[in-house]
Amino acid sequence: MASSIRIDFSLFDTAQHPREVTQLLGIKPDKEVGKGERNEKLSLPRQSIWSLMSSEGDMDVEHYWKEIYSKLGPVVEDVEAVSASATSRITIIINVDGRLPSVIIPPSMSFFASKIGANIDIDYYE
Fold first, then answer.
1. Which InterPro entries does this entry report, sorted A to Z (predicted)?
2. Which domain, by its residues, includes 12?
């Protein structure tokens, strides 16, 4: 099996409830959980979470970033407004099988992260 990559964009501890973030952005997230909300599968979250995930596969980082950005790009000003009262993070998740793949951050990802004050986190899992 080859290494696989996925990208998650997350907003943590937003001033608004995650459902309000969904309404404002007009994007259905992959995860939308308010602080302390009950979820059968998870323990009580310590913070609110609004998260959007790309598909997963063996393409380069830019391929998966384009999936995320195609949704966030048209509402970047709204994302920036929500991010002002939140912690925002772009996580590149790499499931490694053998050799660590090269990771090149596309300029559009670094520009977007800078605009909204997001961290870019790279997680490797074996």
1. DUF4279 (IPR025459)
2. 4-125
